[in-house]
């Protein structure tokens, strides 16, 4: 199908509203980046930054429950306090499953556009599944170079019934085999602030679980576009599988960006805003972004964990007592989430909504 790249309304409808995605543009033969995808200079990732960071050294989670517990717990705590990002190996998710996830992400996006478009928000047969392009394309200065499918978890039965083929089984297996590890990491982080969460509270704080599959098509001019703009995640912890292409960057304290290098068999973990709020700022939600590339299409598979919408979040009393001040106010997670999804990505601005006056 011939797409009129000059007419921005036609282009937006083709990519976003009709669900052809950025992949549909590339498949239609587009060879230069159309204007709606051109980022303002301040957001572009002009040169490939060779800087890597501490997250290049993965943490061995199998050592957490042995004689090296203290050492490993310290590594996790230090990473969460500084970068907000770390990588883990021996995490309990099989390498075979990680490979299957990447394959099935490619399979999902390789389907004809009309098949994927059945999951567009406005028409999706299930409220659990949403397919689309970019974060809030209607409000963004420039559209992100990314197609995605989101799968919200309620229970196994509904996941297997409603999540799309060809990824439902593997996505569910990924979620189930990761959750124990995620809870263990949260426990370690809580231990360090002197908090032992009751099982019920832990389950409420991790009650929203969503698996996404992201697809970043190969881009003819990566220096003009971004895959995902600067943002932090809203929840507790995010677990991310990335393929070998690379392009995930985290912001350092001095404002520079460093790449989280792809490591075969490793999973990336990052701190979300909720954990920053609960810990009164001790743990840092990580500002991150994704660059595009012309060497191939990249896939990533994040699992987002967040509180139940009805959960109240705020700095934990034990931490406030220690710090002598509450840096965030108490609020309903539903309100935090509504605000988060109503704005385009803008670094860590999402946290302003929770800041104490
Ligand atoms: O693809 C990645 O590496 C990161 C994805 C991400 O930040 C997101 O989906 O929010």
Automatic annotation (TrEMBL):
PROSITE patterns noted in UniProt: FE2OG_OXY (PS51471)
Gene3D superfamilies on file: B-lactam Antibiotic, Isopenicillin N Synthase, Chain
Alphabetical keyword list: Iron, Metal-binding, Oxidoreductase
InterPro entries assigned to the protein according to its UniProt record, in alphabetical order: DIOX_N, IPNS-like_FE2OG_OXY, IPNS-like_sf, Oxoglu/Fe-dep_dioxygenase_dom
Start and end residues of each Fe2OG dioxygenase domain: 201-307
Pfam family, one: 2OG-FeII_Oxy
Superkingdom of this protein's organism: Eukaryota
Sequence similarity: Belongs to the iron/ascorbate-dependent oxidoreductase family.
Entry protein name: Fe2OG dioxygenase domain-containing protein
Protein's gene: A03p039990.1_BraROA
């Amino acid at each position: 199908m011939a797409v009129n790249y000059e007419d921005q309304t036609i282009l937006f409808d083709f990519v976003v509203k009709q669900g052809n995605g950025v992949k549909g543009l590339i498949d239609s033969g587009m060879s230069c980046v159309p204007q709606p995808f051109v980022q303002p200079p301040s957001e572009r990732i002009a040169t490939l930054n060779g800087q890597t960071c501490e997250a290049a050294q993965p943490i061995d989670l199998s050592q957490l429950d042995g004689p090296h517990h203290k050492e490993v717990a310290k590594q996790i705590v230090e990473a969460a306090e500084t970068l907000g990002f770390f990588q883990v190996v021996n995490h309990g998710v099989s390498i075979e499953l990680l490979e299957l996830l990447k394959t099935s992400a490619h399979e999902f996006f390789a389907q004809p556009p009309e098949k994927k478009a059945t999951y567009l928000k406005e028409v999706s047969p299930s409220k659990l599944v949403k397919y689309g392009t970019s974060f809030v394309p209607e409000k963004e200065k420039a559209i992100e170079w990314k197609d995605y499918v989101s799968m919200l978890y309620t229970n196994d039965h509904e996941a297997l019934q409603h999540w799309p083929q060809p990824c439902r089984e593997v996505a569910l297996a990924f979620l189930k085999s990761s959750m124990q590890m995620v809870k263990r990491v949260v426990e370690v982080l809580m231990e360090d602030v002197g908090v032992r969460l009751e099982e019920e509270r832990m389950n409420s704080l991790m009650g929203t679980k969503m698996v996404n599959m992201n697809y970043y098509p190969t881009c003819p001019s990566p220096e003009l576009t971004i895959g995902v703009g600067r943002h932090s995640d809203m929840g507790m912890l995010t677990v991310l599988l990335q393929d070998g292409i690379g392009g995930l960057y985290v912001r350092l304290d001095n404002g520079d960006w460093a790449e989280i290098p792809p490591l075969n068999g490793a999973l990336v973990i990052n701190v979300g805003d909720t954990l920053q709020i609960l810990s009164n700022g001790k743990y840092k939600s990580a500002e991150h972004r994704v660059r595009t590339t012309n060497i191939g299409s990249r896939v990533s598979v994040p699992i987002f964990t967040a509180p139940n919408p009805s959960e109240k979040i705020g700095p934990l009393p034990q931490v406030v007592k220690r710090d002598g001040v509450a840096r965030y106010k108490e609020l309903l997670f539903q309100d935090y989430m509504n605000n988060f999804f109503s704005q385009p990505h803008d670094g860590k601005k999402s946290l302003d909504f929770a800041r104490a006056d």
